[in-house]
């Protein structure tokens, strides 16, 4: 039986899960492939560190050249995370004639043009199912299942940490800080949760989704991104009274005017399919011309869910290798033509939707009229309004729902109003 060697870079949670799956499913893999997959080398920082999976000590190395210089290693699996040294190792692996599997959304979102160009030059594959939505076969579904269709939009929960926090706030009535502490205690949030709660992680994933779904290269730094740390228990309650739940969504839309991408907390109607996504689960709703809406739901992170995606990618590359599909240059795995220049996104100012506005204002005559006048001068119509009982400091929270309006005019109106305000967009308008 033919054997294909695998080199793994990184033995953290996902690396350990990958090793475990390759070992536990060895017989099934061999039956499906007609070949065996053998782990030849594993790059680690500290060989003496205790691991979540037992591996033979002779497999561990701190030298990348030991992995890349092994002629039996056909597939390199990068699971280190971050930009460097992951980027350098991926490029070196491609130049050494290895195919690459990675779950690293950051390096692909920020350095993907360079990586895919090199893969095309040397005729090697780069596959990355595990980089978005964990074990959900989302990218493969977009790339293959919808290959005959035209995807026009996607909208979903792609960061489990933010969803866990907002779900906890919704269920228990707690504030953001308490819900974040609970997520950290449960292992769903890092000690420094900025990338998750600030929206940066979702923006990286949305850039990759846009690449696969729309065929556009996007710099994640250009995606309008808002986090969830400003959401309060009051906002959660007010949304519920209005018939909504608050979710952090990654949204992509394509039409004749171009591509628009954004990440922000959103009021989702309670009847919407995304409203029921709880805990750290992910879900992405895709819209395409022929099929219409389709939903992809499951565990979006964690050792074993992500390892499932990684091992599936290894198997896909192995099957193609055995079939002789990588015999020359001009192929970059499953992104065949990476655009030469980043796409300029449609400005957020052009996005039209209804908005939730929460003002904190002194409880004095004329304030409500001044706010309404500012909104009206910029063409913003109010659909619904309520005001809470004034607090001890004499201020009160005013909540407004607007009719659908472009972001730009509303932003100008809020600047003119000159009051502290929390603004959240509504889904489905």
Automatic annotation (TrEMBL):
Q: Does the keyword Oxidoreductase apply?
A: yes
List the top taxonomic levels of the source.
Bacteria, Pseudomonadati, Myxococcota, Polyangia, Nannocystales
The protein's annotated pathway = Amino-acid biosynthesis; L-methionine biosynthesis via de novo pathway; L-homoserine from L-aspartate: step 3/3; Amino-acid biosynthesis; L-threonine biosynthesis; L-threonine from L-aspartate: step 3/5
Ranges for domain ACT: 356-429
Alphabetical list of InterPro entries matching this protein: ACT-like_dom_sf, ACT_dom, Asp/hSer_DH_NAD-bd, HDH, HDH_cat, HDH_CS, NAD(P)-bd_dom_sf
What is the catalytic activity of this protein? L-homoserine + NADP(+) = L-aspartate 4-semialdehyde + NADPH + H(+)
Q: Which UniProt keywords apply?
A: Amino-acid biosynthesis, Methionine biosynthesis, NADP, Oxidoreductase, Threonine biosynthesis
Please give the name of this protein.
Homoserine dehydrogenase
Gene3D superfamilies linked = 3.30.70.260, Dihydrodipicolinate Reductase, domain 2, NAD(P)-binding Rossmann-like Domain
- Give the EC number(s) listed in the UniProt record: 1.1.1.3
The top EC class, named as a word, is: oxidoreductase
Family of the protein in this entry:
Belongs to the homoserine dehydrogenase family.
């Amino acid at each position: 039986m033919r054997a294909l060697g695998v080199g793994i870079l990184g033995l953290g949670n996902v690396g350990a899960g990958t090793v475990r799956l390759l070992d536990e499913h060895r017989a099934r893999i061999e039956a499906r492939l007609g070949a065996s997959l053998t782990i030849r080398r594993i790059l680690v920082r500290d060989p003496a560190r205790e691991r979540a999976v037992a591996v033979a000590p002779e497999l561990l190395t701190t030298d990348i050249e030991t992995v890349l210089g092994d002629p039996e290693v056909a597939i390199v699996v990068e699971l280190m995370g971050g930009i460097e040294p992951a980027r350098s190792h991926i490029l070196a692996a491609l130049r050494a004639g290895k195919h690459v599997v990675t779950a690293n959304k950051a390096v692909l979102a920020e350095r993907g043009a360079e990586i895919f160009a090199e893969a095309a030059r040397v005729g090697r594959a780069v596959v990355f199912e595990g980089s978005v939505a964990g074990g959900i076969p989302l990218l493969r579904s977009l790339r293959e299942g919808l290959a005959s269709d035209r995807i026009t939009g996607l909208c979903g929960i792609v960061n489990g940490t933010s969803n866990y926090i907002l779900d906890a706030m919704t269920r228990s009535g707690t504030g953001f800080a308490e819900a974040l502490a609970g997520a950290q205690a449960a292992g769903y949030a890092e000690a420094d949760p900025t990338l998750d709660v600030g929206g940066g992680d979702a923006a990286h994933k949305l850039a990759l989704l846009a690449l696969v779904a729309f065929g556009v290269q996007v710099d994640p730094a250009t995606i309008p991104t808002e986090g969830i740390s400003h959401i309060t228990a009051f906002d959660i309650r007010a949304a519920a009274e209005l018939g909504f739940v608050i979710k952090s969504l990654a949204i992509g839309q394509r039409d004749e005017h171009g591509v628009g991408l954004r990440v922000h907390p959103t009021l989702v109607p309670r009847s919407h399919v995304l409203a029921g996504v709880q805990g750290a689960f992910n879900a992405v709703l895709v819209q395409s011309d022929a099929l219409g809406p389709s939903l992809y739901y499951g565990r979006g992170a964690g050792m074993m869910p992500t390892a499932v995606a990684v091992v599936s990618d290894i198997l896909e590359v192995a099957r193609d290798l055995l079939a002789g599909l990588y015999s020359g240059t001009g192929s970059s795995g499953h992104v065949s033509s990476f655009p030469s220049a980043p796409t300029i996104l449609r400005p957020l100012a052009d996005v039209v939707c209804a908005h939730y506005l929460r003002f904190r204002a002194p409880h004095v005559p004329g304030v409500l009229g001044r706010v309404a006048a500012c909104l009206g001068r910029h063409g913003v119509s109010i659909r619904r309004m309520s005001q809470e009982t004034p607090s001890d400091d004499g201020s009160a929270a005013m909540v407004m729902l607007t009719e659908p309006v472009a972001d730009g005019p509303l932003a100008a109106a809020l600047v003119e109003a000159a009051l502290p305000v929390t603004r959240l967009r509504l889904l489905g308008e």
